[in-house]
Write a structure and sequence with these properties.
elongated, 6 helices, mainly alpha
């Protein structure tokens, strides 16, 4: 399930921004992606950096043994009640897709 189905674009942007701010090693990885590298790969630098941030978030979730989306919500949504509501909606959508 995509983050974009349950979160606003502002929440997604904020989530990645906060995740990167909270993890200096991720910031270094992202800043190492230069315009030259992006051009060589024929990607937009912002999108390439977003992909790298998502990959780092996934790695962290796997190391912690938790769901990637649940981890992302900790950065994207301030209120615990709202995070729980979104997680319930995600489960409802997943069960209706079955």
């Amino acid at each position: 399930m995509s983050k974009s189905h349950l979160l606003t674009q502002e929440q997604v942007d904020l989530g990645y921004e906060r995740f990167v701010e909270a993890h200096p090693e991720v910031r270094e990885r992202i800043l190492a992606i230069t315009l030259e590298i992006a051009d060589d790969l024929d990607f937009d630098i912002g999108e390439l950096r977003r992909v790298e941030a998502a990959h780092a978030l996934n790695e962290r979730a796997m190391r912690q043994g938790i769901d990637e989306f649940a981890l992302f919500l900790q950065y994207a949504v301030d209120l615990p009640e709202e995070r729980q509501r979104i997680l319930r909606a995600r489960c409802d959508l997943a069960s209706s897709d079955s």
